[in-house]
Amino acid sequence: MRRTLFAGAAALLAAAGTFTFVLTRAEAATQTLQSLAAANGRYFGSATDNPELTDTAYTAILGGGEFGQTTPGNSMKWDTTEPTRNAFSFTKGDAVVTFAQAHNMKVRGHTLLWHNQLPGWVSQLPATEVQAAMENHITAVATHFRGKVFAWDVVNEPFNDDGTFRSTSPFYAAMGTDYIAAAFRTARAADPDAKLYINDYNTDGLGAKADAMYNLVKTLKSQGVPIDGVGFQAHLAIQYGFPSQMQQNLQRFADLGVDVAITELDVRMVLPRDSTKDATQATYYSNVVKACVAVTRCVGITIWDYTDKYSWVPSTFSGQGAALPWDENLQQKPTAYNAIVTALGGTVSSPSPSVSSASPSPSRSVSPSPSASSSPPPAGSCTATYKIVGSWPGGFQGEVNVTGKTGWTVTWTFANGQTISQLWGGTVTQSGASVTVKPASWNATPPATFGFLASWNGTNAIPAVSCS
Length: 468
Fold this sequence. Notes:
CATH superfamily of the largest domain: Glycosidases
CATH topology of the largest domain: TIM Barrel
CATH architecture of the largest domain: Alpha-Beta Barrel
Shape: elongated
Helix content: 25-40%
Low-confidence stretches: 1-29, 350-379
Mean pLDDT: 87
Number of domains: 2
Strand order of the largest sheet: 3-4-5-6-7-8-10-11
Number of strands: 21
Structural class: alpha/beta
Strand content: 25-35%
Radius of gyration: 24 Å
């Protein structure tokens, strides 16, 4: 598969300013997040919801090939599907499924059992009636969507952050922890072919809540409960640091004999945006994707809607937002988007600012580097290869690939006054023309790649690089 970044109609924000571009239809036919994920044996998806489906500009991107999977954010939850006891409504869920089928997208069912978004009648049930109502609900919903969803979030968010079970759940209050096994067995009976998941947030890295989930899954497996996967929501925030040892955490769950998936990914920040926050956000997106790709049983990644226009973050976290790879105007954020592409194994190219997004089908005018510079590989050291992957008047994007040594340091000296404005995959220090890059914690072991945006004027010679 040819791996060159394409970016749809996107805005690139760099030191030189803001500009937009679109790609030719031939490029668009072969370059999507989904195609790159599929080349890695995974899917790449976006959540959606029914109000969004009336936005034609939004649906053109959602169903345009970038995504191979979707999750309905609300339309399969209990308050929507059974607002009154034994009176079921599937109209909204069916609308999402119909859209997905028309655009060759798989659907994750979300969610059969959750302590939130329950109609009032559920919480008013006597404890003796809760199990029957729960099993009736799961059976009806899973049976209706049987054959239309490839996976179900059967139980959603069973734990508090300290690893204790949520006592506020009416199901836990009535049945104790047995409600989880009962829910999975009921779902399997209703839909034998769907993959059955347990799903939670703040379990992405090592910690008390992840340990509790791990022990639960291990116990369920030992009891023969039909659990097929664990969903990691990955609602991240750059101000709180990246989850500890995400890849190792995903791997230990996979080693229990279950699939793992990134189910609700977004990376929020305290507003307003700036280039530093964007670069950190891009690193987080890259970290998550790389962790999934590195774990054989990580089957896919779903961002929690693709655009800030419909993000849940601003209404939930005051003063925060800008959490997704597309902005509120449905324009790609090149730093975040390109980080995902690179982590999926794609190659990033950059646009010419002279191309307007209003044009019917123009081609990009990019100036990829015909050559690269690499350091010789001294014994016990490493090799670093520098290349320019795209160039436009006043700016360019560079990439450096490192092999050979864990904990590398890469240095070079610009000859033509170039200045780095953003860098992902490492930390950069630039003093005059001299540049030093050290790896991000997740990127210290080769083969490693970091990328950057920089300014140039007149001449953009490739420097000699050193790696130690």
